[in-house]
Every structure is written in C-alpha cells, then in structure tokens.
Amino acid sequence: MKKLSILFLCLLATVATQAQTSAKAKERVAEIRKLYAEAKERMAYNDQEEYPAVTNMETTWYYMAPGAGPIKHYVKYYLNTIETDEGEILGQTCYFVSDSYNSGARKIYEEYLLDEDTGKLVFAYTYEENGDDTTNEGRYYYYKNGSLAHKDEKANPEWGVTLSEDYAKQKAANLYEAMKLTTNF
Predict the structure, then answer these.
(1) Predicted TM-score of the model (pTM)
(2) 9: confidence class by pLDDT, cuts 50, 70, 90
(3) How does DSSP assign 36-88, residue by residue?
C-alpha cells in the first residue's frame, strides 16, 4: 500500500509540474507571437519602396552541392540602428533574418526572430516544398534562456523536417555572426 501511495504522489507531482510547464510555455508562445507580429510590421515599413530602409541587408550566394546540384541562398537581415541622442550611430542589432534556398528539388524558406539585445534565437520557422508536391512546416519557440518552450511540426514522414530545434539555434547563431562580421558592429 505504501508503494502504491508513493507511486501515486510521484505521478501527481509529475502531472502538476507538466501543467505548470504547459501554462508557462503557452504564455511564452503568446509573447513570441506578439513579438513576431511587431517584427513583421516593422519589416513591412522597412520594405516600402518610397522610403527604403538603410537598415536592411541582403546577400545572395551560389554553390554546387553533391547530389543536389546548384544551390542559391538568398538571406535578408532586418536591422535596427543604435544611435545616441545626438544622432551618432553606435551600431546595429539584428531582429529578424529570412533565408530561402533550394536543395535539389526541395525549396526551403526559413525565418529567425532574434532577441535584439542578445542576438539569441526567440522563434524559428521553416517551410519546405518537396519534389513530390508535399510540404513540411516547423515552428520552434524558445525561452529567453535558450531552451525550447514549444514546437509544432507538420512533416511528410518520408522526408521529415530539415530544421530541428538544435539546428535552428545553431543556424541562427551562424547567421547572426555573419551579419556582425559583414556590418563591422
């Protein structure tokens, strides 16, 4: 009877912890969705043709990949300029990066929402069109400490998703570092 009671208490503690984590994750996802909507608004403003933003940076590169053929990457960075009250530019921070490329018959589009202060990944999204007319989609939400809060994947079981939560963190860090090297900030 004692063993059964202890087992029941452990199970109850696990369920209670899971419920708290789930509520915390839902709160974080809602917070990230709001940040994402705000970033998309800023991006739409920055992309206006009448007032082109000086804080966008685009890069394209081409290379050959064994088994996939020629690949074209198009990366777009959205940046904020940091200025003093007198208008002196101190640097730039990146808040959003998009990356689109092909890999053989697959077309892949990825988005990375970054924390403007730290450059750490907040949210990653990937969309893939496979060569067989199927699609894969993944959304990854992160806590401020870098751990995964929630993920939502819809994948063709034959192909699977290209982006995983760990790969997304590494790729976002690499793209952020590339931006810093290019802009000298």
Answers:
(1) 0.80
(2) very low
(3) HHHHHHHHHHHT-SSS--TTEEEEEEEEEETTTEEEEEEEEEEEEEEE-TT--
